[in-house]
Design brief:
Elements lengths: L12 E11 L17 E12 L4 E5 L6 H6 L9 E6 L2 E2 L5 H7 E4 L10 H12 L6 H7 L16 H14 L4 E5 L7 H18 L2 E5 L3 H7 L2 E6 L2 E7 H6 L4 H11 L9
Parallel strand pairs: 3-8, 3-9, 6-7, 7-8
Antiparallel strand pairs: 1-2, 1-4, 4-5, 9-10
Helix pairs in contact: 3-5, 4-5
The structure holds adenosine-5'-triphosphate and magnesium ion.
């Protein structure tokens, strides 16, 4: 295990009336800047308020298409807020240098794209770019439940589940202060899920890092998170301590979602 980097304290992420929109009939969200364009906007996410504390693990749950990935993408400028503000460590995302923001707030996608070269090349890419000490690729691979020897394999031959784990190792290698996880265990078997959950929670404990974790698996959400945000139709419909949200949903819509997603065969990744 490497010593924590000097800036490894977890990031604080704060949403202030944040929203994301696209021009109706268009797929290019970059054309929308604070609603100035006129025309008709389609809001993917509206009026998000809330704060993720340093070191907290927040589960983001909600039906498919409700805006969960959009919410994550606002935190590291993969998408620019169309309304309101998002702050990372109290600096508005647009005031960050994008490359530095994305190093500090690292996203892991459900279907990650591998860079050309070996698995080691993938793991070392961000540290090289940012002039950080090179990580121990073999140790990182073992941490996420892969063989250390995989470091020398070409990355393009990996299975979906292997890619998910290499992407997590790659994100940890850049010594982030927050991890944005978008359904990162969806391609894993039960053992793989547990190993990856343990690796993420150990990282959080050791570095004080912050986690925002989108999952369709409500059992996983309850296992890993302190706080849960429920996204319904582009709005935050519930926000609170995980067990309280599950025990007493604040509205009928949230109750119905939780009940539906927990029925066998309803949650997309529910075992
Ligand atoms: N670039 C885009 N242009 C237009 N619409 C978009 C764009 N990106 C996302 N959307 C729409 O925004 C809504 C929210 O999408 P998002 O990907 O955030 O949902 P999600 O909750 O992550 O869903 P899933 O669980 O299926 O991953 C969806 O209706 C989606 O079709
Ligand atoms: Mg999504």
């Amino acid at each position: 295990m490497q010593p924590p980097s000097p800036d490894s304290r977890g990031a604080a992420i704060r949403f202030d009336h944040a929203g994301a929109a696209v021009l109706a009939g268009e797929g290019n969200h970059d054309k929308v800047r604070n609603g100035e364009e006129g025309g008709s906007l389609r809001w993917l996410l509206r009026d998000v308020n809330g704060r993720v504390e340093p070191g907290q693990c927040v589960a983001i749950i909600g039906p498919s298409g409700s805006g969960k990935s959009t919410l994550l993408s606002l935190c590291n400028l993969l998408r620019t807020p169309s309304a309101g503000h998002v702050f990372v460590d109290e600096v508005e995302v647009r005031a960050w240098r994008p490359s530095e923001l994305r190093r500090r707030v690292a996203m892991v996608f459900q279907q990650p794209v591998m860079l050309p070269g070996t698995v080691r090349d993938n793991i070392e890419a961000a540290p090289r770019l940012h002039g950080l000490p090179l990580p121990d690729a073999r140790e990182l691979l073992e941490r996420v439940g892969l063989f250390a020897s995989m470091a020398e394999q070409p990355a393009d031959g990996l299975s979906g589940g292997q890619r998910q784990r290499v992407a997590l190792a790659r994100a940890l290698a850049q010594r982030p202060a927050a991890l944005l996880l978008d359904e990162v265990t969806s391609a894993l078997d039960a053992d793989g899920v547990r190993t990856v959950e343990a690796a993420i929670l150990a990282w959080r404990r050791e570095t004080g890092g912050t986690v925002m974790w989108v999952t369709h698996d409500l059992v996983q959400a309850r296992r890993v998170s302190h706080v849960t945000w429920v996204v319904l139709e582009g709005r935050i419909a519930a926000q609170g301590e995980t067990e309280k949200v599950f025990a007493s949903p604040p509205s009928e819509a949230v109750r119905a979602f939780l009940a539906g997603a927990q029925r066998p065969g309803q949650g997309e990744d529910t075992p």
